[in-house]
Design brief:
The structure is a homodimer. By secondary structure, chain A is α/β, with parallel strands linked by helices. The first copy, chain A, has 8 helices and 7 strands. Chain A is about 40% helix and about 10% strand. In chain A, α5 links the parallel β3 and β4.
């Protein structure tokens, strides 16, 4: 015997989360046992509700409660500029600037052939479909990492023949860094000096 | 607008966990969105079930599904030796050795006056009640940290006048370390060379 079964079950479930090893799973589990029951119920409900109620926006593929996300549904955003990002959380980084008034496209991943992530594993086809409409510019805002640069190059090659202007966030950001961690000033200059590809 | 509401809710709930900051809460939340619905339901259920079904053993105060925990209910364990530990997880460390055949007492904390943890905040009174029965030895197996040593000293002073032998795990363990992280050999020698206080 080690732990009571419900406790062992909880530890096993927590260990499956990214970045949570056996020791931190134990610590989290014991924390849960000391947490008021109502709070634990709220956490359990938030997990289930988030997973069950959220889907991908049919236009930009961002995580959304509705078929069309609030940004795509906003009539004041112009649809001729599409900012392409790797993950939904990257949208929050750009929205924070209050500068970009176009719409987004979330790839849900970056090209990484070694890990078996090719164009079919991310939302590339969905982006091409959108370019059939009236689009003036595609801003490639993937991370300035190897995967992000590879993805940007790949998309630029694919999109330019369609006749749409393709730009990339300026390398004002520290190379190898992640969009998600950039400060506003750096991101802002990167957006301002975006260069055509 | 930043995140869809169910997602923002989930991030807020995850941020309340110990060691989970805003960034890791976001990462965990997006991981949840990519996890199969059944797995998320299982995690939510494990959280709720662990919190709702577990209580403290009426004898040793360990976390248990039943009024008396499996160790206290085991007729082959002798009740004349009580091993006192700070947290339920410390029991697993000692049980792993397959050496100790007595029973446990979980304090659920260690004395820490600066944090306002005095004898009334941990399960000291419950330990004294148990000493009214037939007890030959109390082994103080609290962590060899300032809080653990303080707690051991305090308990030794309290218990010795009752006429019960009080021992402390030998300092075979690295000072300042935690029981929870000790390897078996170290813990075993610490148990073997326990000294009377």
């Amino acid at each position: 015997m080690q732990f009571a079964r419900p406790l062992a079950d909880l530890i096993a479930q927590l260990e499956r989360l990214p970045g949570v090893g056996p020791k931190s799973a134990q610590r989290l589990a014991f924390h849960i046992l000391r947490t008021p029951e109502d709070d634990v119920r709220r956490l359990a409900e938030a997990l289930r509700h988030a997973r069950e109620s959220l889907r991908l926006c049919t236009e930009c593929q961002n995580v959304s409660e509705t078929a069309t996300c609030p940004i795509c549904a906003d009539p004041t955003r112009h649809r001729r500029e599409i900012c392409v990002v790797g993950e939904p959380r990257d949208i929050a980084s750009i929205e924070r600037l209050n500068e970009f008034k176009g719409v987004y496209h979330v790839l849900h991943g970056l090209l990484n052939p070694l890990d078996g992530v090719g164009p079919d594993q991310i939302k590339v086809r969905e982006l091409l479909v959108r370019l059939e409409g009236q689009v003036d510019e595609v801003i490639l805002a993937t991370n300035p990492t190897i995967e992000g640069d590879t993805t940007a190059l790949y998309l630029a090659k694919l999109i330019k023949p369609v006749g749409v202007k393709v730009t990339r966030l300026a390398h004002g950001m520290p190379v190898g860094g992640e969009l998600d961690y950039a400060d506003n000033a750096t991101l802002l200059s990167a957006l301002e000096y975006r260069r055509e590809m």
